[in-house]
Amino acid sequence: MLFNSYVFIAFFLPVALAGFFASARLGRASAAAWLVMASLVFYAWWNPAFLPILIASILINYGMSEIVAKSGHRPALQSALLALAVGLNLLALFYYKYFFEVAKFLTQGVGFEVHADPILLPLGISFFTFTQIGYLIDVKQGVAKERGFLNYVLFVTFFPHLIAGPILHHREMMPQFAEKLTYRFSLINFSVGLTIFVMGLFKKTVLADPLGGDITAGFNMPGDLSFFGAWWVAIRYSMQLYFDFSGYSDMAIGLACMFNVRFPLNFNSPFKSQNIIEYWQRWHMTLTRYLNQYLYNPMALAVVRWRSEHGFGTKRANQKTLGGFLSMTALPTLMTMALIGLWHGAGFQFLLFGLLHGVYLTINHAVRIFRGAAPENPSPRAARLSRILNIAATYIAVVVGLVLFRSRSLEGAITMYQSMLGLHGFAFSIGKAEIIWVLVLATIIWGCPNVQQIMGKFGPALTKVEAFSKRLPLIWRADASWACAVGVMLAISLMAMGGTSEFMYFQF
Amino acid sequence: MTEAEVLQKLNEVFRDLFDLPDLELAYSMSAEDIDEWDSVNHVMLVVQIEREFKIKFHTAEVEEMKNVGDLVKLVLGKLNTAASR
Fold first, then answer.
1. Is the peptide bond before A166 cis (omega within 30 degrees of 0)?
2. Which residues of B touch A289 (CB under 8 A)?
3. Residues of A in contact with B61 (CB under 8 A)
4. Which residue in A154, A404, B19, B33 is deepest, having the highest Cβ count within 10 Å?
5. How many of the other CB atoms lie within 10 Å of CB of B32?
6. Which long-range contacts link A77-84 to residues 24+ away (Cβ below 8 Å)?
7. Given an 8 Å threshold on Cβ–Cβ distance, is B59 in contact with A294?
8. Chain B residues close to A298, C-beta within 8 Å
9. Of A138, A277, A308, which is closest to B38 when you measure between CB atoms?
10. What is the least distance, in Å, from the CA of B81 to any CA of chain A?
11. What is the maximum span of chain A, computed from C-alpha positions, in angstroms?
12. What is the pLDDT along chain A (508 residues), one digit of tens a residue?
């Protein structure tokens, strides 16, 4: 079921909420069970055939986690069991997500015949697989304290995050489901949650969706685009993806809030970043956090510990040597980013997308390490100018990367890049209305506070954000004028919803 | 070791690693307050702390160490379990 569908807004959500707080009177277990059932219905609505996959994944993972937890007295066995459990998860993910593409590549590219039929990707499999792998690892390391079955199932299935994140950590979720107050209806949490949900819905249906049409056409036939046409398509795609994912993330946070649950922030005005390191700290924040925790840190730790034990330096000075930089910074960064790329899908364009960002990040780190300190106390005007230039350069680097992300194939991406370099002419045919609309979107992206800043006082997410500006007091209050404004946004969003469209991150 | 001693020793590690001889570490500080404390340097910091205190962290703990207060608590906890063994 889509968040932006009539059946979800008019039927599912009210019933799920009312049932949750009503059954909470019978006890926490029944409320939790109700929410699990509702979440399974939400999931199965799409394609009931996927439901057994989700249930099997949860049961097997929970069973394995308990076995892993109880084998702590035999460390070697425990490690083997963990490896088996993680391996099973990755195998399932590989089968559903990559097997067909790999088989196609082997058959067509290498001439090694492998028979495979297209396999439907179970919704959200990358997300629920990742969450559960994290849980398994933490159980093995003894940091998962709360291990109740019902709370675990609720943590994995809770519908606001089930299909496209945020990627939750059990440590921040399971205690919330164990907390009594979560099960008591709160008018302020409901109002705050509903407001955030409506703002997200507005971003999705009014700001993101109408951009769609000729972006698809452009990426299907990138060779037909002129220099201006290609950049125009690429820029508008970046905005479409931005409002789509930002809208989705708002809606997820808003929905959780209605159930008195706080999610971590997933999206914090990433296009306002001044460099690529910052960009990844603000775009899909929970994926970055997850990969830092379970991929980058272990790799980097192994390298640094190895250097430390073998008499190589592990100080800042050693980072400035080529070997130190390559082994302690460049290698773990490139490997992590390559895997981020592949996480988004099978295909060389995704691998290259990850590697390109890996290169961006490596350059970014190299500049930080080798350049030394920035000049102190520049004039306010110089500081302002350099800030604007940094934001612009970061944004352009991101747009260039997104071409790989959106292209249907590597050839398509290369053709698109050729168009962006002007190899297919410089014809200019962009309508006035289109330009005005993009300028409106740009003003929202770069000139306005984000939803978290507007709602920040009520702490709707686990992550705090910096205040936008003291001069612009655009802060939500529970009063009539905000109610009217949100009501109007909801009405416009509902009318714009007509043909429901999927969220872009559903394909991952 | 007391909390204050742990903080004192951590302060030396931070000064040394980040090249900030005047740094005065406080419990309330976090990675956001020190420019040099990014994800790359964080890992070096972790290993340096392991060496200085002769302890070892779990990978899962590394992400929890991005503010000084938690860091002191974690190090103290490790030292105490090591001592009680």
1. yes
2. 63
3. 141, 143
4. A404
5. 10
6. A78/A140, A79/A140, A82/A136, A82/A137, A82/A140
7. yes
8. 59
9. A277
10. 14
11. 71
12. 888 888 999 999 999 999 999 999 998 899 999 999 999 999 999 889 999 999 999 999 999 999 999 998 998 999 999 999 999 999 999 998 888 888 888 888 777 777 777 788 888 898 999 999 999 998 998 888 788 899 899 999 999 999 888 999 888 888 898 888 999 999 999 999 999 999 999 999 999 888 877 888 899 998 888 999 999 999 999 999 999 999 999 999 999 999 999 999 999 999 999 999 999 989 999 999 898 888 888 888 898 889 888 888 777 777 788 888 888 889 999 999 999 898 888 888 899 999 999 999 999 989 888 876 666 677 888 888 999 999 999 999 999 999 999 988 889 999 999 999 999 888 888 888 889 999 999 999 998 888 888 888 888 888 877 777 766 667 888 888 889 999 999 999 888 886 657 777 777 7
Domains of chain B: 3-83 (1.10.1200.10)
> CB distance A365–B43 less than 8 Å?
no
Q: State ipTM.
A: 0.85
DSSP A378-410: --HHHHHHHHHHHHHHHHHHHHHHHHHHH-SSH
Structural tokens at position A399: 């747009």
Q: Under a CB-based contact definition with an 8 Å cutoff, are residues A273 and A282 in contact?
A: yes
Q: How far is CA A227 from CA A9, A129, A406, A425, A439, in A?
A: 42, 41, 18, 6, 19
Q: Which two tokens stand for residue B80?
A: 């105490």
- Tell me whether B70 touches chain A (CB under 8 Å): no
Inspect the interface and report whether the beta carbons of A298 and B16 lie closer than 8 Å.
no
Task: Report how far residue A448's alpha carbon sits from residue A451's, in angstroms, rounded to the nearest whole number.
Answer: 9
Phi-psi label, residue A111: left if phi above 0, alpha if psi -120 to 50, beta otherwise: left
CB neighbours of residue A387 within 10 Å: 12
| SS3 call for A179 | coil
Active-site hit among A169, A170, A284, A344:
A344
* A377–chain B nearest CA distance, Å: 16
- Yes or no: say if A59 and A89 are a contact pair by the CB < 8 Å rule: no
* Joined tokens for residue A41: 């219905």
